[in-house]
Amino acid sequence: MRVYVLNGPNLGRLGTRQVDVYGLTSYADLVTMCVDTGRELGLDVVVRQTDAEHELLGWLHEAADEGAAVVLNPAAWSHYSIAVRDACALLRAPLVEVHISNIHAREEFRHHSVVSAVATGVICGLGVDGYRLALRHLAARPAPEAPDRSA
Ligand code: DQA
């Protein structure tokens, strides 16, 4: 099963960006961790990061067309991008929203995510381990039912 792990703006700077908040794991390490976790779980994990909103929208459309599950850290877009939320609403398979930091314990403008209402579930504040937990959840969910073509 294909799972897209999609990351929004500035997450490519992990490992050097506000290490007190986001930790020392680099983006390259995060990619390796997600791919390795996927391999252990029998998932085909594709990890991407972008600073361009239209690129993320295109990737979400791709996942929607394929019926693929998504682990998404929308980063700053979480807090205001209705376009990202609308693209997430197109997804047919589960969407797990992940935040490395506990957005509820930070500045008030981070407390609300416009994406959460269209996500299957949200993990925040558990560091990069949140990505691993999201992948575990997706691997453990029952296989989608085959369409009934008997009629
Ligand atoms: C973040 C939290 C957001 O508020 C912030 O803009 C990010 C990262 C997180 O992973 O904790 O870039 O999504």
UniProtKB/TrEMBL annotation:
Residues annotated as catalytic: 22, 99
Gene Ontology terms: biological process: amino acid biosynthetic process; aromatic amino acid family biosynthetic process; chorismate biosynthetic process; quinate catabolic process
Pathway this chain belongs to: Metabolic intermediate biosynthesis; chorismate biosynthesis; chorismate from D-erythrose 4-phosphate and phosphoenolpyruvate: step 3/7
Residues that coordinate or bind substrate: 73, 79, 86, 100-101, 110
GO MF annotations in UniProt: 3-dehydroquinate dehydratase activity
Family: Belongs to the type-II 3-dehydroquinase family.
Name of protein: 3-dehydroquinate dehydratase
Record organism: Micromonospora narathiwatensis
